[in-house]
Amino acid sequence: MEETREQIHTGWRIWVERGLAVAMLVFQLMAMSFAMVPIMVHRLIFLSLCMLLVCLKPPQSKWEKYTNWAMGVIMVVQIVYVLISAERISMRIPFIDDPTGMDLFLGVALIAIIMETTRRAAGPSLAIIVAIFMAYGFLGPWIPGPLGHRGSNIADFVDNQILSPGGVFGQPIGAVIAYVFYFILFTAFLEVSGGGKLFIDTALRIAGWARGGPAKAAVIASGAMGTISGSAVANVVGVGAFTIPLMKRTGFAPHVAGGIEAAASTGGQLMPPVMGAAAFVMAEITGISYGQIALSAAIPAILYYLSIFFQVDFYAQKVGLKGLPKADLPNLKESVKRYGHLMIPLGALVVFMGIGNSLMAAGLKSTAMLIVLSFLRKETRMLPMKCLDGLVSAVRTLPAVAIPCAAAGIIIGVVISTNLGLQFSAFFLAMAAGSQLLTLAAIMVVCIILGMGMPTISAYIIVVLLMVPTVIQMGIPVLAAHMFVFYFALLSFVTPPVALAAYTASGIAQADAAKTGWMAFQFTLGGFIIPFVITNDQALLMQGPAYWIIWRTFITMLGIYVLGGAAMGWYLTKATTLERVLGVLAAILLVIPMAITDYAGLALCIAILAYQYRKARKLKDGASADLQAES
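User: That's the sequence. What structure does it adopt?
Assistant: Structure tokens below.
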């Protein structure tokens, strides 16, 4: 009887979820085309629908069971109320027109629901941080020192956070509605149609045969999939479910296989052309075109993946791992025959953005093209139920993106109203005593700490608010400053003690979570020096003369190569402690944008590799002599 009741509940949840998915798509298309829905009304209804989706999930406790119904009713009331009051809300002047009693009641209720759904969708870390910022907003008069402020009351707080476009319904949620939704939709349809398999098959065919081939294929496939998935954890699950067992079968230790996949999956959001969802938010905040951001991110992203690739190769040499036998490699010709037509919309997506289409139009056109082209093969055909599955898959992803953005909006409202960002800037500049390197190192640590356990977008928004003003005050250009904090907010996914991507990978690999976390951290060491290079010289962001861009790219690549060898304890053969120390020194010299340090680092690299080559030759000659003696 209990089982039948649970089946009934599951059944109606699925149909309600499908109905909400269709309603959200129709609403989005209407609001972004001909309906002309006021901005505040649009954003509130969109967020309410996302939170309703969270309420549809099976409750994990009695608390959730009862609050699901209460939150669901309040969300429906919110939608009806905002539709009735749309004209008044859109015309009112914040902080001059007093909010009504119903405004206050529903505003406080909405903030409470955002906190609870944030806890469910993004984990307790973000909810706790938001609660701390809210408390700071109210307790300002009682806080001593420079962090004190005049404080806020309930009416002002609701006005600032709910009835104004700078809090909950500010830029982050606006970017999700205007851009991210359509790219999530495209990604979901691409995966449902089978396009994701071609990424993995292509990666295996390119690198699967080489030493450590499955790991190298994981790096390539994760970069390709990660750029459109927008989530390090989702990328680990989607790609790692296939690549991690394959790595283990070919000799990789479980925690190493998990660490490689976590590092590679995390970097997908650094990889153009799509760069996950955070790139759209960056474009919205900075006012820099999305195309320029994607172009500027290309070289740093490639260098990040090369740093992982180098370490994988060193590890494979060190342990003596081979590639996959030719018979075990996928038939790329067959994969292209089955799924190759699904790559045309992905290429068209880039073209549409390049020729000036809006991001919304580019995403919609590419999705429509994907559906049409899917009918070229029976196994990829997007029939109505398959399209509905893709739509539901996309909408299920939305709460994990939209709700943290709304929560981050609360933080934005508090930071702006209390001038906390300026206070942080003054603190860090005073603490570092004028040293740019020390200031950036301190900001790096804070970015990683603030990003731990949070979705990428939320982490990025928080560090932008608190850290970017300091970076810009040091004379670093806006784009370089944003890229710096973005990198380190993202690297929190593979930095212990809270390394979500690594812990997800450890579950798939059946490995110790702590060991997997530290391996993921090691494989991303190159990623920790790239942001510092960007702040000192914007050549890696494709700014400056072509010859200098090429030179700095080569020098930085050499730096991450010797750093990877030092971390792994292997170059051409086993490295001594002295060689590893010299490798770290060479990497530091190479990433400093000065001619004298470039030449010194280059000379040190040549010396290390020449000595390694000599050692490797001696070992090889000795092994050959022993073999001849035995025969």
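The chain has a mean pLDDT of 82.
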